UniProtKB/TrEMBL annotation:
Source domain of life: Bacteria
Polar residues composition bias: residue spans: 193-202
Name by which UniProt lists this protein: Uncharacterized protein
Ranges of Basic and acidic residues composition bias in the record: 220-232
Residue segments, region Disordered: 193-232
Natural source organism: Candidatus Nomurabacteria bacterium GW2011_GWB1_47_6
Amino acid sequence: MLDEKDALQVKIDRARLQLPEDARAAIDAVDWRGAIMQIRNNEGYDFIQLAELETETELLLCGLANPEDYPRQIEKGMGISREATQKLVEEMNEKVFKKIKEEMIKIAESKKLSAEKAAPRPVTVTDKPANEELARAGIQITGVSANGNGNPRALESREEILERIEKPALPPASFEPHPLLAEKLSKPMQIPSSKTVHSLDNLTKPAVPAPPKAAPAAPKKYEVDPYRETPQ
């Protein structure tokens, strides 16, 4: 049959197993028993007093004791004054309970970060065959686009995209002339004409007659008829 001390330890072990996994991990991450031994070196408590402090602390950590009763149980079990109890509780808060709380916060933040990394990303819907054709044409499609109303716009079919690539829509016929050309076209057309310069020198000079044309050469006359033979 178990004695009272062993029965209490069994009760503590069972309660500890019922703690959340994060709470157990935080408690195990802090050397709270080592902190109690350090108090003994500083304050000079004996081993019986430290054993009582360890038991009351473990009961509190496992949820078997009320935090409000912790100072009174320490004072009664260790047989120390109220002032010494108050000082001891403050030291335990600083070296044990505060550190366990910090470890629990670290564990919670680590789990949250891991959950964010493991969360599935939104799947981008793309038309792979169509994207390959567009990529060869120098056009990139990253996903489903939205129309002017903010609603998703359906992707074009392969045939529609190929037809648009092979027969691109021509821009509307519009011609905007260059500003200099537009300025010239807006002015009235002027026909170039020869300009006669009238000056005193031109009026007083006599007109120079044109040189006479050469007379046509007279036909050559023959003294003897070239077609008639001279008698011998």
